Amino acid sequence: MEQIKKQANEISTNEQTNTSIIQRDLRYILTQKCNYQCGFCHKEWCDGSEKNLLDVGDYDFLFSTARDTLWIQQITLSGGEPMIRKDISQITKQLHWSGAKITMVSNGSLIPQYPEVMEYVDTLNLSLHTTNQDLYTILTWSHTKIKDLIDGIRDIHEHYSHLQIKLNSAIINKQNMPNTDDFAYKIELASKYWWKLKYLELCGVDVPGFVPLETFEHELIKRGFVEDHRTIRQGIYKKDDIEIITGRVFCSQAKQTKDPQWYCKQYNDIYITPDGCISSCPVDIKKFSAYDIIVSRDSLALNELFQQVIDKDTRYACPFSL
């Protein structure tokens, strides 16, 4: 991990970084509602309001402008639970037709009801923090049966073979570490269905069950996984045909650098709230209101706003810089 910190610090002091070639996602927070109540969910740090003002055409206009001016092709659909949106099929279809590569972050419980949505999604990040039914029920406050969930996603994957499945887990001490039955079962699923596994450090050392990412990665290495490569955001570990992705929530990652705010401005995604606010900071999510620009289809003004959002000299109240 010292190597990662060194790399991040070197990047944060390199003023010659060309932001035009930085690969970002447009991150659409489609809703703040969710049918689960996971206590450790960061909910993209939204403010709790629920104003779904943007429609299919608005989301397509946002993407088309970002595609043509910032060369962005990746979109992440999150929430809340994005499958709650009644127009989710129309949103994904239109974005797909416009050339977007779509990742959806979902708990998966509603997907079997609307499987056609997956025709337009490239990657499904399925939140599955534990495969212990009792613990899953406690964590999610839901009645979802894990076996039904996995069987449903498997059937959908068989029908939409292009879909890449990643099982997302927040690292929880004694629950899904590499020495647990949960980890062994997910390895079995990954091997059987060609799924990938993704483990993220909980967003805060004060969260119950917190385990440092370094501890988790050390346990992977002890079990024969080898670090294949590392990107700005994540580590990739492999063993045989199994790929495990590790990482932190971006704010926690930025905190490791000398200048978290500068680092964030260079590498973070662009967040879009349901009511049309835009920011590159999930903490200061209401920084720029773009609703009027979006509904008027003013691509020039939207591009100027995008540039302002990612401008490293635009200051905001970064909690790690105070």
Description:
The chain is an alpha/beta fold. The chain has one domain: Aldolase class I (TIM Barrel, Alpha-Beta Barrel), CATH 3.20.20.70. 34% of the residues lie in helices and 19% in strands. The protein has 11 helices and 12 strands. It has helices at 2-12, 56-70, 88-97, 133-140, 146-159, 181-193, 213-222, 250-254, 260-267, 291-295, 299-310; strands spanning 25-29, 74-78, 101-106, 123-127, 164-170, 196-201, 226-230, 234-239, 242-248, 270-272, 277-279, 288-289. The chain has a 12-stranded mixed sheet. Strand 8 and strand 9 (242-248) form a beta hairpin. The longest helix is centred in the first third of the chain and has 15 residues, at 56-70. The chain is globular, with a radius of gyration of 19 Å. It starts with a helix and ends in a 12-residue tail after the last helix. The model is unreliable at 1-21 (pLDDT under 50).
